[in-house]
Specification:
globular; Rossmann fold; isomerase; glutamate racemase activity; about 40% helix; peptidoglycan synthesis; single chain; Glu_race; 11 helices; Asp/Glu_racemase_AS_1; 6-stranded parallel β-sheet
Length: about 290
């Protein structure tokens, strides 16, 4: 049985889920985490549901069997849409937290009630997202935009050092400009978009590009903080919240694994989590 000292598992198709891990560490500073970036198969949003479900099951099996996790955060909108129900059936006693684009917080905050939503084609085309959208019918006007290639460009940006000549950064800026333009007019007048929902965990790492394009007045709404709060609630209910003390000095508070290029995860972890490269490792994870 998991103990309060057991780690929390977190996974994404790549490094985007590190944005959720940031929020989890802020909300739960005494917990240990095991993060898995399935970068060899990223991005999930441009793959089929059967493939994403198979990868999600393989990752959940690995984290449960090899790390004895006490909870699992599916830090990927596409994996949540494709696989969360099956994972809950497979692990009925494991606290599971999935992601969904933050439409409800956007409705609560928007003044014009015209909201842009960007995400992968897999997320925006999913049955789960369709139900979420239908549940908010009449509360706001949602303008959807599938951002093909954006998650991949952000992933690729971690293969190089931060510079103006980084091809991943160049592609990210160009795609952010293309997709925000496609959404229409942003602003605070009637009929204008005043909030942009970042419906993929990768997109938070392009927030500087979105800010440069849209200005400081437009709200950028991500999912990390609500997910972190829900994780805390589930751990409290299960009696496994590690609320006092700190992880043992002999235990690394965050272990990070990738199925892809080690240097990409190391660069992302150092840049976005301020953790040492030595906390990162590569693994090979076959399909179930």
């Amino acid at each position: 049985m998991p103990l309060p000292s057991s780690p929390i598992g977190v996974f994404d198709s790549g490094v985007g889920g590190l944005s959720v891990l940031q929020a989890l560490r802020a909300e739960l500073p005494h917990e240990r985490f095991v993060y898995l970036a399935d970068s060899a198969y990223a991005p999930y949003g441009e793959r089929g549901n059967a493939f994403v479900t198979a990868r999600s099951r393989a990752i959940a099996d690995y984290l449960c069997q090899q790390h004895q996790i006490k909870a699992l955060v599916v830090a990927c909108n596409t994996a949540t849409a494709a696989a969360i129900d099956e994972l809950r059936m497979q692990y009925p006693d494991l606290p599971l937290v999935g992601l969904e684009p933050a439409l409800k917080p956007a409705v609560a905050q928007s003044q014009t009630k015209r909201i842009g939503v960007i995400g992968t084609r897999g997320t925006l085309g999913s049955t789960r997202f369709g139900k979420l959208l239908a549940s908010l019918q009449g509360q706001a006007d949602f303008v959807l935009q599938a951002c093909d290639g954006l998650a991949h460009a952000i992933e690729c940006s971690t293969l190089h050092t931060v510079s103006e000549n980084n091809p991943g950064h160049t592609a990210t800026r160009a795609l952010c400009a293309r997709y925000t333009q496609a959404l229409g007019n942003f602003g605070h007048r009637p009929g204008e978009i005043d909030s942009l929902v970042l419906g993929c965990t990768h997109y938070l790492f392009a927030q500087d590009d979105f800010r440069a394009l849209l200005g400081p007045e437009i709200r950028l709404i991500a999912t990390g903080e609500p997910v972190a709060r829900q994780t805390r609630r589930l751990l409290q209910a299960a009696g496994t919240l590690c609320d006092e003390g700190t992880p043992s000095a002999s235990q690394t508070p965050v272990q990070l694994y990738t199925t892809g290029t080690l240097s990409a995860l190391q660069t992302a972890a150092m840049r976005w989590l301020q953790v040492p490269a030595t906390w990162c490792q590569t693994i090979t994870l076959p399909h179930n």
